[in-house]
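2024-03-11 09:14:02 DEBUG pipeline.ingest accepted 1 chain
2024-03-11 09:14:02 DEBUG pipeline.ingest length=151
2024-03-11 09:14:03 DEBUG pipeline.predict start
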Amino acid sequence: MLTDDEVRDLFSAYHDRELSPERNDAVRAALDANAALKREYDAFVRMLAGLSAMAAASEAPLPGVSPPQPHDPAKPADAPDLLGGVQRRLQKRSGGKFYGDGWSRLAGILPLELLATLVLIALVVAYAAMTMVSTRPAPAPAGATAPSAPR
C-alpha cells in the first residue's frame, strides 16, 4: 500500500499513464480509498487543464514569438508552448500594454522622454544665463560726473 505522499509524488506519472500496471492499480486504489487525496488529484487535473488551455495556440502569435508548428506524427509530441500562451493572454488582457509590438511600447515612453529632454534643455539654458551675467557695475554714461567721495 502506498502512502499519501507517495501517491502525490505519482500524480503526474499517473495522469500521463506512465506507470506500470501494478503501480497504476496501487495509485487508483489509494485514490478510491481516500476522498481527500482524490480531491487533491482532481485539483491537480484541473490545474493541468488550465495550463493546457493557456498554452493553446488558438489566437494569432505575438510579434517575436514563433507560431506553433504542425505536429508530425513521426516525431514525439513537443511540450505545449506555455510561455507563448501566457504572453498572448497578458497582451490581450492588458490591451497590448504588455508583450505588444515595439511601436505600442514606444508610444507610451516617447512623451516622457521628450518632456525630460525639454526640462533638461531649460535647465542648461537657465544655468548658462546665470553664469554669463557680469557682477561688475555698469559704466557711467558719457558726460556724467562720478560721485565724489565724502571728505
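2024-03-11 09:14:41 DEBUG pipeline.report The radius of gyration is 37 Å.
2024-03-11 09:14:41 DEBUG pipeline.predict end
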